[in-house]
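Predict structure. Chain length: 350.
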Amino acid sequence: MKSLIFGMTLFSLGLTAQAQTKAFNPDISVNFLGLFERGTNISNDRTQVPHNGFSLQEAEVQFLSDVDPYLKASALLSVSQNPGTTDFGISPEEVFLESTSIPNITLKAGKFKMALGKHNQLHTHAFPFIDAPLIHQALLGDEGLNDAGISASVLIPAHWYSEMIVQGFSLSNDTLYKSTNSGSIGGLAHFKNLFDLTDDLTLEFGASGTEGNNQWGKTSSVFGSDLTFKWRPAEGGKYKAFIWSTEYLNGNRPGMSTDTAHLGGLATWIQYQFAERWWAEGRYEFVGLPYSSEIPLQNKQSALLAFFPSEFSGFRIQYDHLMTAGKAVQDHAIAFQYNVTIGAHPAHAY
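Prediction complete.
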């Protein structure tokens, strides 16, 4: 009997030690995106990003863990090709700590994706389409607005989900700011509201804006709004769903050449899930709002078909048709992407 009790005690101590060890080990995940592209306006030079043919679009390694009862931390490292070479580089995409114990308030500090609109907060593997909208690429660059700073998110007491986010950050974004003064700080505000219209239908509305000094000593700014409807039936929602999302950005970058200083555009897209693992998407984009004779108007249509066997793997094929004012030839492109995640990847935001 004594030996049985002794054995059970050792087993219990072993489980306790294992649990304590796990508590100090972060959850680790790796996501990677393989890509094949072929387009009339895509380079055949393997050193260019993107280029025709096969490529590793991106790989992400993420470490996520509770620090203590008050904080959690996330470190996400991105591996991608350096433009102008075939070499790959590793860069910190998001490295931050976040509070967990303050009621209705979340504080964040580090390097992270800023809450400018909806799409800018997404990682590449979570993009609705294989590429980012044209207006996001033009105003925010390939990496989006992603800087070191601090953030405070406050839940507003209301009968619906209402959140206000205020952020301060460094102005290193090459496309929008590229400020040479490290002491200069930009500001951002984002107001988000989520309504349950029915048991099956939700509406999300957001408005956001950011300002900061740019490399010419002037003030760059971007303002935008987003609207999203999501329908998923309470019964049978595993097999069918519908999303319609629209986002508009309007940027002003005084000091730049006149054809790009003031630029606006929108992207609107729909997603229809018609089976458990299949869905189809369509997107329309327009760049040139507000209109200027010096800005080349662009409109783009995209169609996508996706097959996701599970939440850890997916395959997508996308077709793009791009028309640019003043350009006689229209551009066409097709892309195939596989998306794989291994490890304990956290859930995406709603």
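Summary: Confidence is low (pLDDT under 50) at residues 6-11, 15-20.
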